[in-house]
Write a structure and sequence with these properties.
253 residues, 4% strand, 61% helix, 11 helices, mainly alpha
């Protein structure tokens, strides 16, 4: 992703990586290397509803967020943390950013180990769904992405693939759409949504969450987009007619 900050300025990634971001990157990479070496007991540290509530492994909502399921998984999370967390950490400072990151991750973990019990009690899911482990820093990272999008809602973000530009306020909805449409089947949607919900609540307490996008606002922006599209079509038609009028007529002899 590319980000546009000041008018006319565009660049890849943040200009400075704050120490707290570097420390989080190093910690996650160190745990990932330990995983690859077989030194990390995933069955004890990943978040599982059954293990948390039945076996009282109460540390899991914290430890799961330092584990990752593969190179692509950790690369995506750490890239997002570096790109969007760095400007946020520079503005907030180390203490506030780290507290926000950890609360979002732990809060998402608590939802991961608690919410699956509801469909199980209703008979909608098998007992096996309570055993499935969840790991990754995505809950904490999604909270950071939300905070970035609400802090600088009018910044322009451009995806590399596909090359689409949009305002930062649409970052979370677009990521959820891409996740549901193109993501792998084992993505923890609950974990991602949990990080966003916890992050929004934290920002809401400080009065920094802004207003939620309403259905009326979505309809209004949809009508504006359609009007701009029609206006563009009319302008293109005028230009085409102007070019036709400028063409020389046939020679007479």
């Amino acid at each position: 992703m590319y980000g546009r900050g000041a008018p006319g300025g565009i660049g890849f990634g943040p200009p400075i990586t704050p120490p707290v971001i570097k420390q989080l990157l190093i910690a996650n990479l160190a745990v990932f290397v330990a995983q690859a070496m077989g030194l990390v007991p995933l069955d004890l540290l990943a978040a599982s509803p059954a293990d948390f509530w039945l076996r009282f492994q109460l540390w899991q909502p914290f430890t799961y967020m330092w584990l990752h399921g593969g190179l692509g998984h950790i690369a995506a999370n750490m890239f997002s943390l570096w790109m969007f967390g760095s400007p946020l950490a520079m503005v907030w400072g180390t203490e506030r950013f780290l507290r926000f990151y950890l609360i979002c991750g732990v809060g998402a973990g608590l939802l991961i180990v608690s919410c699956p019990w509801i469909p199980y009690w209703l008979g909608l899911t098998p007992r096996m769904s309570l055993v499935w482990p969840t790991l990754g820093a995505s809950g904490a990272v999604m909270g950071v992405l939300l905070a970035y999008s609400l802090t600088w809602p009018n910044r322009t973000i451009m995806l590399i693939f596909p090359p689409v530009a949009f305002r930062a306020i649409w970052l979370i909805p677009i990521l959820f759409f891409m996740e549901y449409a193109f993501g792998p089947p084992n993505v923890s949607h609950l974990g991602h949504l949990g990080g966003v919900v916890v992050g929004w609540l934290l920002l809401r307490v400080r009065g920094e969450a802004g207003q939620l996008i309403t259905i009326e606002q979505i309809k209004y922006r949809w009508r504006r987009w359609r009007m701009r599209r029609r206006l563009r079509a009319v302008q293109d038609d005028w230009r085409r007619r102007a070019r036709d009028d400028d063409r020389p007529g046939p020679w007479l002899h």
